[in-house]
Amino acid sequence: MACKNIVVAPRLNAKTPKILVPRILKRNERSIGGLWRQESSSWGDNLGLGNRDHLLHIPTSASPFHGLTCLRNHYLVASQIQTPGSVSSGVIFTWPLSKPRGLLRSYPLEAIGPLSSSKDGIYLAGGATSGNVYIWEVINGKLLKTWHAHNSALTCLAFSDDASLLISGSEDGMIVVWPMISLLDETDSGSSHTSLSVSTDHKSFITGLLPSSNVSHSVFVSSSLDGTCKVWDLITGLFCKLTHFRNQ
């Protein structure tokens, strides 16, 4: 189901942290699979501002399941579902939240579904229906890595709190934990990558992934259309706890 309207509510009395603004590609630059490209459309053409109830309102959006993420509270990033019969590849829209800049538009190599950004705002990951996963460096929009992660469409992506791991879930119920140090190893040019753990315990579509860490333990929670919610050890991939939700 696509999200047609996006409303972002303001956070009162909150200080906005300073971050490096992504370098926008010049108009004559071409970077296949790159992330940032600025459109000529004005701020006011895409957003509604100046309302006490919300910070901004985007009236038209076709974001898929988990296709929306926020980069360091400065940018709203949304993948877009392509219309039936469209010959174009995927498109990702990025709206600055605090300054009246134009819409940033990205054209990845294929249509992207779920998105996830690391908490430090350094990396953005996107998953495709082909089973491929893409990782971009946010500051310059460079495509760092792409690989075939699943044999079915990606439905969820999530970075660990320290961005050392990337968790991916797919339509067939599979969950894979990937070490970022291996994925970003420039000496590894192979198409396959070693995962930290793989789970096939869910029997249906993965609907959510939520990592959680403390001083002594790191876990993540997964939910599925099979009616279960499971807790896993993030490092070992071992099953910790099961909650079953019956249909009412």
TrEMBL record:
<dbReference type="InterPro" id="IPR020472">
    <property type="entry name" value="WD40_PAC1"/>
</dbReference>
<dbReference type="GO" id="GO:0006364">
    <property type="term" value="P:rRNA processing"/>
</dbReference>
<protein>
    <recommendedName>
        <fullName>Protein ROOT INITIATION DEFECTIVE 3-like</fullName>
    </recommendedName>
</protein>
<dbReference type="GO" id="GO:0005656">
    <property type="term" value="C:nuclear pre-replicative complex"/>
</dbReference>
<dbReference type="InterPro" id="IPR015943">
    <property type="entry name" value="WD40/YVTN_repeat-like_dom_sf"/>
</dbReference>
<keyword id="KW-0853">WD repeat</keyword>
<dbReference type="InterPro" id="IPR001680">
    <property type="entry name" value="WD40_rpt"/>
</dbReference>
<dbReference type="InterPro" id="IPR036322">
    <property type="entry name" value="WD40_repeat_dom_sf"/>
</dbReference>
<keyword id="KW-0677">Repeat</keyword>
<feature type="repeat" description="WD">
    <location>
        <begin position="199"/>
        <end position="234"/>
    </location>
</feature>
<dbReference type="Pfam" id="PF00400">
    <property type="entry name" value="WD40"/>
</dbReference>
<dbReference type="GO" id="GO:0006261">
    <property type="term" value="P:DNA-templated DNA replication"/>
</dbReference>
<dbReference type="GO" id="GO:0120330">
    <property type="term" value="C:rixosome complex"/>
</dbReference>
<dbReference type="InterPro" id="IPR045227">
    <property type="entry name" value="WDR18/Ipi3/RID3"/>
</dbReference>
<feature type="repeat" description="WD">
    <location>
        <begin position="147"/>
        <end position="178"/>
    </location>
</feature>
